[in-house]
């Protein structure tokens, strides 16, 4: 039961890390927010274009705040995942895989990004390793000490 909680906390930590990265890209990257504001307001209106300049700055500051908030909550979830998981490797690989997958979906959804075939092969290998980590039965201390004695 506790290992399941660790995996869930790790998955949420990975998602929050991806959200923080997307917020950083919106805050510091190209003019995604300005283009979205201009498209929503209508390109022909000069007053709306002027309002988008100020709204663009407010949205960037908000995204910077989201970066810090998402990272703070992400580290909280990751610390709980380490507490509930049977090993730190399981929590780390789960959070990393969740981050990769979340980043791929958010990148496609928000920015229209695509992934190469090699990326999909890499994430498939990562997920196979993650499956092995979560399905392997952990060795007990007694089994481990018996092996040391031999």
Structural features, described:
With 150 residues, this protein is an all-alpha fold. The protein is 85% helix and 0% strand. The chain has helices at residues 2-28, 32-41, 46-84, 88-111, 117-135, 141-149. Helix 1 packs parallel to helix 4, helix 2 (32-41) packs across helix 3 (46-84) and helix 4 (88-111) packs antiparallel against helix 5. It is elongated.
Fold blueprint:
Blueprint: H1 2-28, H2 32-41, H3 46-84, H4 88-111, H5 117-135, H6 141-149
Helix pairs in contact: 1-3, 1-4, 2-3, 4-5
Short description:
The protein is mainly α.
What is the mean predicted local confidence, pLDDT? 84
Number of helical elements: 6
Helix content: over 70%
Strand percent estimate:
under 5%
Terminal residue distance: 32 Å
Molecular shape: elongated
Give me the count of strands: 0
**Which regions have little confidence, pLDDT < 50, spanning 5+ residues?**
none
Helix/strand structural class: mainly alpha
Keyphrases for this structure?
single chain; 150 residues; mainly alpha; 6 helices
